[in-house]
Amino acid sequence: SRTPVTVTVTGAAGQIGYALLFRIASGQLLGADTPVRLRLLEIPQAVKAAEGTAMELDDCAFPLLAGVDIFDDAAKAFEGANVALLVGARPRTKGMERGDLLEANGGIFKPQGEAINAGAADDIKVLVVGNPANTNALIAQQHAPDVPAVRFTAMTRLDHNRALAQLSKKAGVSVSEIRKLTIWGNHSATQYPDVFHAEIAGKNAAETVNDQAWLENDFIPTVAKRGAAIIEARGASSAASAASAAIDHVHTWVNGTADGDWTSMAVVSDGSYGVPEGLISSFPVTTRNGEWEIVQGLEIDDFSRARIDASVNELSEERDAVRKLGLI
Ligand code: NAX
């Protein structure tokens, strides 16, 4: 049988962790023939809760689960990691300024980047879920100089999936009929879900829907503010859908996008589409053999340009702020 793949998950005792770990252990992340060894990272106060989750993982008797180890030390947690899911983060609390939030998260993602640099496997792939995800990914990446920058990604797949769901409802088609949707920019309220290059059953999605007012006043704000709507309804933030998107992100990265389709991932910019080099911004990407590539040559009209620029400007501001704080 195959050697287990080591998957490190941070924030393992949190609500996304609780939805995510069981899906990884059941084989949904890496496939039904790939055993996994889990390494969980938590803060000391939450180690006991993580141990409870590990007991439940045992009790599922998953044939693919080769072991679970729990750590409160990043250096140990990332040892030998082939895949790292960075879910744990410092949430914004009442009265917290953006600078405070970035600083608190710098205190988490800097040492985690260093630990990945020191101890992860050569083929390490990193997905940052914890918010502010793009900039947390940038901080970790900047502290892992020996790891190719392309291995650090942040999650906009939940936004992508939310956009698929909204568009499928509007058009009255299954999500499987929709291709080439794109989330551009930051995983924040400024993100831009783009349907102008998308297709529904092979035809241009914007033309098929043919409802600019819906696009501007309904679709874009609904997707961008969905996280807040979930909190309002559920009394807690998205967890199962976030875990599902994290599974999708890594699964697509490892197994490739379908011919004639792409996905959305926040990846380090090479300057494509005028996004400043080095920012970790969401793009349309294809994946193959475990590597991603930004889709090139899309025409961006004025409507899309303004929205992409607004979100990318926010990312530049976040980068400037963490630079000023000495975090990168
Ligand atoms: P929870 O507060 O339920 O869990 C977070 C866990 O992280 C806690 O158990 C905490 O002890 C742990 N943690 C904190 N600092 C840590 C550290 N230094 N090392 C290891 N663990 C640490 O939050 P949850 O609902 O699970 O959400 C986790 C993160 O995902 C949040 O930052 C949240 O904002 C973010 N999200 C990102 C999404 C995305 O699309 N990119 C969507 C969902 C979610 O909102």
UniProtKB/TrEMBL annotation:
Q: Which residues form the signal peptide?
A: none
Q: Which residues form the Lactate/malate dehydrogenase C-terminal domain?
A: 156-321
State the InterPro entries in the record: L-lactate/malate_DH (IPR001557), Lactate/malate_DH_C (IPR022383), Lactate/malate_DH_N (IPR001236), Lactate_DH/Glyco_Ohase_4_C (IPR015955), Malate_DH_AS (IPR001252), Malate_DH_type2 (IPR010945), NAD(P)-bd_dom_sf (IPR036291)
Q: Which residue ranges does the record assign to the Lactate/malate dehydrogenase N-terminal domain?
A: 6-145
Q: Where does substrate bind?
A: R92, R98, N131, R162
**Is NAD a UniProt keyword of this protein?**
yes
Q: Which residues form the active site?
A: H187
List residues binding NAD(+).
G11, A12, A13, G14, Q15, I16, G17, N105, Q112, V129, G130, N131
Sorted UniProt keywords: NAD, Oxidoreductase, Tricarboxylic acid cycle
**Which Pfam families does the record cross-reference, listed alphabetically?**
Ldh_1_C, Ldh_1_N
Q: What is catalyzed by this enzyme?
A: (S)-malate + NAD(+) = oxaloacetate + NADH + H(+)
Known EC number(s)? 1.1.1.37
Q: What class of enzyme is it?
A: oxidoreductase
Entry similarity comment: Belongs to the LDH/MDH superfamily. MDH type 2 family.
NCBIfam families registered for this protein in UniProt = MalateDH-SF1 (TIGR01759), PRK05442.1 (NF003916)
Q: What does this chain do?
A: Catalyzes the reversible oxidation of malate to oxaloacetate.
Q: What is this protein called?
A: Malate dehydrogenase
Q: Which gene encodes it?
A: mdh
